[in-house]
Amino acid sequence: MTARRPARVLRIVGTGYNVAGHVTAETRSLLEHADRLFYLVTDPATGAWIRSLQPAARSLHAAYREGGCGVDAVHRMVEWVLEPFGEAGGRLEVCLALSGHPGICLHVSHRAARRARELGLEVRMYPAVSFEDCLVADLGVDPAVTGRAIYDATDFVLRPRVPDTGAALVLLQAGVIGEVTYRQGREACAEGLRVLAETLLRHYPGDHEVVLYEASQLPIVEPRVVRIRLSELPAAPVRVQTTLYLPPVSRPPVDPRMRERLGLPAPTAESPAAPP
Q1: Residue 184's pLDDT is what?
Q2: Other C-beta atoms within 10 Å of 246: how many?
Q3: What number of other Cβ atoms are within 10 A of residue 64's Cβ?
């Protein structure tokens, strides 16, 4: 039996990083065979590669206005992506391609998905290599051992939380805390970094080593990994695309009663507290 193909569908895919290096075979096929293809990617080389698959592919970057509201730009993008469904009847497959993983820290993908479902369209999102997949590989950390929490940096300072310092903490978009407008080539928000540092220093020691991380965008470029003390964060070389990674301060002790109840041996310095 042949699998049913939806008649009118929005497919949302991620291109990962390193131009086409992280693109799955499934995603490439969707890019090549979409009736309409829209994209928003972080480097010109990826855009050129997408256009090599479909010369008529349309970039969404023009939705941004210098000094304009970022939310307004997202609204324009969604309108452009869904516009073909109002023009054509019958079967139509529209593909929206985004850097990294399409479901992580990308308002346009989730808003487009919600709006498409409101219009009665089918929506499918496909997994892709995310910044965090790159971070785990580049820093050599294992979130399954220590655990980790992940937040948007602005949301982290707006909504008071007590972080678990025994687990890793990942803060997205550390360079644009409190920013709501689009400015091409902008520097990180200095006041936002000061607020973030003050917030974190309530829970972490000032000499705690943290990492400024940026995934590699091109195969010939190394990832950006800058290690600093937390107290140095306000003056650190943070950029718009920087992710802030805080390793655990120390691992929580094992509850001996629970260990005995589960029949586990006592952990050693080299072994995890729980089996893999």
Answers
A1: 61
A2: 22
A3: 20
Q: Where are the beta strands (DSSP E) in the chain?
A: 8-14, 36-40, 58-59, 92-98, 122-125, 148-152, 168-172, 209-214, 224-229, 243-246
Q: Which amino acid is at 172?
A: L
Summarize pLDDT for 116-165 with one digit per residue, the tens: 999 999 999 999 999 999 999 999 999 999 899 999 999 999 998 899 99
Task: Please choose, from the candidates 102, 48, 114, 50, the residue with its C-alpha nearest in 3D space to the C-alpha of residue 78.
Answer: 114
Question: What is the layout of strands, in order, in the sheet containing 224-229?
Answer: 148-152, 168-172, 243-246, 209-214, 224-229
Q: Which two tokens stand for residue 75?
A: 């609204």
H helix runs in 161-255, sequence order:
190-201
**pLDDT category of residue 179 using cuts at 50, 70 and 90:** confident
Q: How far is the C-alpha of 33 from the C-alpha of 54, rounded, in Å?
A: 9
Backbone φ/ψ region at 246: left (φ over 0), alpha (ψ -120 to 50), beta: beta
pTM score of the predicted model:
0.88
In this prediction, residue 7 carries a pLDDT of: 81
* Strand order through the sheet with 92-98: 58-59, 36-40, 92-98, 8-14, 122-125
Count how many residues are written for the chain.
276
Strands 209-214 and 243-246: antiparallel
CB atoms within 10 A of CB 31: 22
Q: Are 244 and 150 in contact (CB under 8 A)?
A: no
pLDDT higher than threshold 50 for residue 276: no
DSSP 118: H
Both structure tokens of 152 = 């948007």
